[in-house]
Specification:
12 helices, 0% strand, mainly alpha, 296 residues
Amino acid sequence: MVEGMFLIVLTGLIWCANGIIFSYAARRSLDFVSIMVIATFLGSALCWIFLSEPHMILNGTAVRFGDLAVTMISSGILGTVGVILMQRAMRRGHHGIVWTISQFALIVPFLFGVIVFHEPTTLLKNLGLFFVLASFLAFGLGQSQSQRQQDKSFRFWFPMTLVAFFILGIHQSITLIPGYWKNWDDVANLRGSLINTGFFISYLIAIIFSARLPNRAEIKLGLVSGIFVFISPITLFGSMDLLKKANLLSMVYPLAVGICIIAFIIYSALFLKEKSSFSTLAGIVAGIAGLMLISF
C-alpha cells in the first residue's frame, strides 16, 4: 500500500517534470518539435528494448498485433497534435491553467466508456464530471476578469487550450480500446512502445517538413524528457499492480493527475510568478475534487 502510494506520487511528479520542460521551451522560444522528436525517439527505443517482448510478434504469440499497432500508433499521432496545441497555448497564456486543463482530459475517456461501451456510472461520478466542467468556467472567468489578460491573447490561448483538451481526451480514449477486446491481453507489453512510436513518427514527419535540426539546448531537453517518457509507465503500472491488491486501482489516475497539477501550480506560482485569481484557484480545487469523485 505504502509502496503503491509512493509510486503514484512519483508518477505525478514525473508528469509534472515533463510539463515544466514544455513550459521552459515555451518561455525560451525553443523549437518544441525538435525537443520532442529526441524525447519520443529515446522513450520509444528504451520501451522496445526494456519493457516489450518484440520476439512475441515474430512467433505469433502477440495476438491481434496488427489491430493493436494501428490503434496505438494512431493514438500517438493524434496525441502529438494535442500536445503541440497545448504547448503553443503556453507560449501566449497562463502556463498553470493550460497545463491543468490539459490534464483534465482524463474525463473524456470516462465519457467514452459510458457512451460507447455502456459502462455503469454513479451519482458521484456524474457529480465529479460536473465539478471538472465547472472548473473550466472558473478558469475562464478568472482570466477574463484579470486586467492583464483583457486582450486578444486570452481569446487566442484559452480556446486553443480547450481544443487541446478535447484532442488529448480522444487520444486517451483510443488507448483504452484494446482493453475492451474480448479474450485479449497485452502479453508482449506492446502498448507503451507502440504509442510512443506513434508520437515519434509524428514529430519526425513534422521536423522533416520544417527542415530544421535540433540545437544543443533542444537536444539536452529532449534527452531528459525521453528518460521521463520511459520511466513514467514503469511507475504508473507498478502503482496499479500494487494498489490493485488493495482494491484501490481506480484511485491511481486521479491521484497521479492531481499530484501532477498541484506540483505544476506550485512551480507556476514560485518560479513563473504567475498570479492566480480566486476563481482560478477555485477552479483548480473543483477540478481535482471532480477527478477524485470520478474515481469512485
